[in-house]
């Protein structure tokens, strides 16, 4: 899944979509995931990175991860061909 | 380089919760690097805030409502012109644009410049003509019909032309979403009592309302255009906060409208963006909107450009503006002396 190129994402987790004018606030974990997605990391890479950093098993993480991706899609924050 | 001194008459000074564009237009002109303006306010009511905002308006004259006829209005303008030598006049209310288009030649003979759409440009974009307008200029519009009675609305629903919900709109202002015949009857009566007939019934397009403020030079060229989304809307449907967008499709849409219609003057496009990312034109307002100062702040001083076009100067087209620029409107209690109110009420001048 590719994050929209035009999104402005600040270090504090403030996300601005210049095409719609919508803005969002991410918590630090959401911010980290979005940054990894932006770097083009795969699901496996992101799961590995997150389970290494946080006290969470891969199954639990992926449940929340897919929820999060669904939310990004619903908010049209991913490239439209996704 | 010294600034060009110009006397500019401006209406729409009702800077209230549903504001006219006068004060934001003046604010843009006051920020011009080329124009040193003397601003003459044209007011309709004693309690319009503009006349008392002395940092914006140098002198105000009350003028008769356009509905009172063309002759009293032109006589009043002549009187003001004799005292002030007006260079440019910018009307800012939808309801007065028609009269000033009619008066443009007379004003020109007096030496007062305007920069307004032509009568046919103004007439063809009426809400009641929207379907024909869309077809003529290849612009996507929702279906809308002028009606003169509530029964006409019922007929349109019975025949399947429209289904609930639908929009009931006044010919100049106001729009209500009716979800049932009962609601449609109430809104038809409300709108027709306030704005007269016909009332416009419009197909409801689900999506997000987005707007563009733009200026056309009359040749089909877009001098400037800034897209915006309202972030905070009052109960009257007016923007109380908004943000500039980076949306090439809205700019393409605007350029197409300008090129197809060869629009002359300021305009506001009201658009709906559907979840499928289609844009529908729901209305063209034939003047700069009250949020025009957002465009100035984003880098396009459209009021200044409009004055230059009115004075016959060439104005290069803007190609950029700041994205993510926000405006937040606020209310403020201005304190005035009774004497100022007395003067405007009794002499019609301040």
Quick recap:
Chain A is mainly α.
Protein described:
- The complex is a heterodimer of chains A (82) and B (350).
- Chain A is mainly alpha-helical.
- Chain A is built from three helices and three strands, in the order E-E-E-H-H-H.
- The longest helix of chain A has 17 residues, at 58-74.
- With 350 residues, chain B is α+β, with helices and mostly antiparallel strands.
- Chain B folds into three domains: 4-115 and 333-347, Rossmann fold (3-Layer(aba) Sandwich), CATH 3.40.50.20; 143-203, Dna Ligase, domain 1 (2-Layer Sandwich); 206-328, D-amino Acid Aminotransferase, Chain A, domain 1.
- Chain B has helices spanning 22-30, 70-84, 94-110, 119-124, 130-137, 150-158, 181-195, 248-261, 292-297, 302-310, 338-347; strands at residues 4-10, 35-43, 59-62, 88-90, 144-147, 166-169, 175-178, 199-203, 208-217, 222-233, 239-244, 264-273, 279-285, 326-328.
- Chain B has a six-stranded antiparallel β-sheet with strand order 13-12-9-10-11-14.
- The A-B interface holds A 6, 8, 16, 18-21, 80 and B 208, 228-229, 231, 242-247, 277, 323-324.
